Amino acid sequence: MVRTMSVRGLLTASLLAASCAMAVPAARPAAAQSVFVKDIAHVQGVTGNQLVGYGIVTGLAGTGDSTSVLFTSQTIQNVLQSFGLTVTSQEVRTRDVAAVMVTATLPPFAHSGDNVDATVSAMGDATSLQGGTLILTELRAANDLVYATAQGPLSIGGFTAGFANDSISQNHPTVGRIPNGAIIARGMHTAITSGNGFDYVLTTPDFRTAANLAATLNHYFGGGTAGALDAETVHVTLPPRYHDNPVQFLADASDLSLNEDQLAKVVMDERTGTIVFGGDIKLAPCAIAHGNLTITITTTNRYVPSGPFTTAPGAMQTNTRVRAQTQNKHLTFIAGAATLSSVVQALNTMGVTPRDLIAIVQALRASGALQADLVIQ
Fold it and tell me: Residues 59, 176: one domain?
């Protein structure tokens, strides 16, 4: 029996932070791209509201909740009683029903009669919601008022086939959607303006972008129209000709273009080994040492028979051997790079995997060689 533990430690501690040249090139303006106002900002308060409800899915081919899920049996009893049928929990023994939570989002400016999608998730031990139909379910908001009702057949985008341990599944069969399956029962009033103005909220907060947005609105609609309050908020005072028509102002402003700053940022997901570089990333000259340590533990079981001068029975003998092996890596020098493509090309010369690259980037950021924000998910 051989067990191998791969310690990706890259010896990032030995990334030789001291060897990284700290002579970072002089800062230059971050790269910017032209975007529309409607793509980077939205009106504060104009947002969706979350709805949730509890219901049951019927019509499952033996893949629903088992009898050990008590709340499913109680729910079936309550549903049958509403139709004039009285049963006990002992009489409710079906695997064709599953208890579910139903969620949906009430969009801004929604009106009674509008349709939205509903998401259905199993609560008990159901193995699949394939082929099921959601029974009429009330969806409530945080204020406990019913804003929608959902019902209809589920689409799970996958399947489950087989029995017990001899089965195969594709995608996630215990979560499904009902396209346009929720009907809005109560509209929600959404105020656009407060007095004679409103606030634009940037999707990605940035002082330069906020200042550019205010300058663009002032240039098009006249001075005093907009002012940046912080890196995320730009207050707008409606010009006199738009006092009674804020919708027209938003329509005219939405297609205005401005320069949006691109933040130097590296986003890493250690669970999946994903790393994404974005923005104007700078890399100072740096020397990196990278190595892998592999520890192999070998266990051998051998039967030792009894000797000729003893009546004791034979026995199993266990021999364990531990071996550590280090893959030597030479010191690699990476010249300073001022563009994203140059950074990626320089790091690729290390010949490391994405998971190793995550640790290298962390050490580069800690040493000051990588000029970018680091986001670890």
Answer: yes
3-state helix, strand and coil shares in percent for the chain, rounded to the nearest 5:
20, 40, 40
- Looking at the fold, whether 180 and 53 belong to one and the same domain comes out as yes
Confidence band of 297 (pLDDT split at 50, 70, 90): low
Question: Measuring CA to CA, how many Å separate 234 from each of 43, 311, 334?
Answer: 10, 92, 42
Q: Find tokens 């580069």 and name the residue.
A: 364
Q: Per-residue pLDDT tens for 316-372?
A: 776 766 665 556 555 556 666 656 566 666 667 666 677 777 777 788 788 777 778
Q: Tally the domains of the chain.
A: 3
**Structural domain containing residue 210:** 33-46+191-261
pTM of the model: 0.66
**Dihedrals phi, psi of 214, to nearest 5 degrees:** -65, -40
Of 184, 206, 225, the domain-final residue: 184
pLDDT for the residue numbered 22: 35
Residue 263: φ, ψ to 5°: -75, 140
Does residue 31 register a pLDDT over 60? no
H or E segment and range at residue 342: helix 340-348
| End-to-end Cα separation, the chain, in angstroms | 36
**Cα–Cα distances in angstroms (integers) from residue 189 to residues 47, 105, 192, in the given order:** 11, 15, 10
Query: What pLDDT score was predicted for residue 188?
Result: 78
Contact (CB, 8 A) for 350 and 332: yes
Asked whether residue 204 falls in the same domain as residue 82, the answer is no
CATH of the domain at 232: 3.90.1150
Strand order in the sheet with 41-43: 41-43, 197-202, 233-237, 226-228
Residues 83, 22 within the same domain: no
